[in-house]
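Dear H.,

Thanks for agreeing to be a second pair of eyes. The structure we're designing against is below in token form, covering all 331 positions.
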């Protein structure tokens, strides 16, 4: 997710749920091709983040091929484990330039992009899409996904909404199950997966005949990266913790992780940018506690990492003692 899944956040996610696969932020092939140092920095990652998939967007097949070749020529320690082509982002600033989910309207171009990249690299190439642009059209959807598979895509991640829906309404998983029934490559479902119960429900079709190859968790993990491990444990019973420890952490238990995230962000971006980047994460971390809006305002006004740290340390003392009975345990 652009602006969220940077190296600092991925390190936190992998610490909590070491078995997940991380994707990078949305990264522009145009910016990479034209030598943007800021964008190049987005490609850097730590060993602990592996397996890591670099997520690219754009609409020029030759740029995808050129960037792919450069990524594959990197020394092994800097080379990603795969490349994901984003054809699913619905943001107007992306689609107005015919990037992201706007490519859904042009299966021929989509095929050219995938073919150019898969010919240029040996590492796996996946594609992220939506079920439609203005609306879901079964015939067009099937044509599109078959084109991607034929062009060499190793896997598809499918979000169960159209571009026009954005993130409104409910994700429709029926086309995702259809894709699994139709194609031979792995299919990963995405959309509205915000609990272990929802994950278990979405992995299989209602009739139980179709099982997806995986699930992608996005917005639900912001402020709650613990959900990643909770979902993993739902599908891997042997990894589950004992009942005594298997619960949603309260704020005091989250605090060490939140503070580490803050330190990582400041180290990655510098104090000023790091604090700006962390504001949205911190808002997510505290949203479920009493008086969250008050704490959020204090954090937004803090001028230093030290100031934010002091505010975070003060929160457990300011929540009703001794066991925070007023805290909402949805986090």
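And this is the sequence the design step returned. I haven't edited it by hand at all.
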């Amino acid at each position: 997710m652009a602006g969220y899944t940077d190296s600092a956040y991925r390190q936190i996610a992998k610490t909590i749920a070491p078995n997940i696969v991380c994707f990078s932020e949305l990264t522009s092939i145009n910016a990479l091709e034209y030598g943007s140092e800021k964008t190049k920095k987005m490609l850097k990652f730590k060993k602990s983040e592996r397996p890591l998939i670099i997520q690219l967007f754009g609409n020029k097949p030759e740029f995808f091929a050129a960037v792919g070749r450069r990524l594959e020529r990197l020394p092994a320690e800097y080379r990603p484990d795969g490349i994901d082509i984003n054809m699913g982002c619905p943001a107007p600033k992306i689609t107005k330039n015919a990037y992201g989910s706007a490519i859904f309207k042009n299966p021929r171009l989509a095929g050219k992009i995938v073919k150019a990249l898969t010919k240029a690299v040996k590492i796996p190439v996946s594609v992220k899409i939506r079920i439609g642009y203005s609306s879901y059209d079964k015939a067009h959807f099937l044509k599109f996904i078959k084109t991607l598979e034929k062009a060499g895509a190793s896997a598809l991640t499918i979000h169960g909404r159209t571009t026009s829906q954005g993130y409104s309404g409910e994700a429709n998983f029926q086309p995702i199950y259809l894709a699994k029934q139709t194609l031979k490559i792995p299919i990963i479902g995405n959309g509205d997966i915000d609990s272990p119960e929802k994950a278990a429900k979405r992995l299989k079709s209602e009739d139980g005949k179709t099982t997806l190859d995986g699930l992608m968790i996005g917005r639900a993990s912001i402020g709650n990266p613990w959900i990643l491990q909770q979902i993993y444990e739902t599908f891997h019973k042997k990894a589950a913790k004992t009942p005594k420890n298997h619960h949603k952490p309260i704020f005091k238990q989250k605090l060490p992780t939140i503070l580490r995230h803050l330190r990582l962000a400041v180290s990655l971006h510098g104090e000023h940018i790091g604090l700006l980047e962390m504001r949205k994460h911190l808002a997510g971390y505290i949203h479920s506690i009493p008086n969250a809006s008050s704490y959020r305002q204090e954090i937004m006004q803090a001028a230093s990492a030290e100031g934010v740290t002091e505010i975070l340390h003060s929160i457990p003392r300011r929540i009703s003692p001794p066991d925070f009975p007023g805290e909402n345990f949805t986090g």
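Two observations from my side: The first strand starts at residue 22 and ends at 28. The domain at 251-318 is CATH 1.10.1200.80 (Non-ribosomal Peptide Synthetase Peptidyl Carrier Protein; Chain A).

Warmly,
E.
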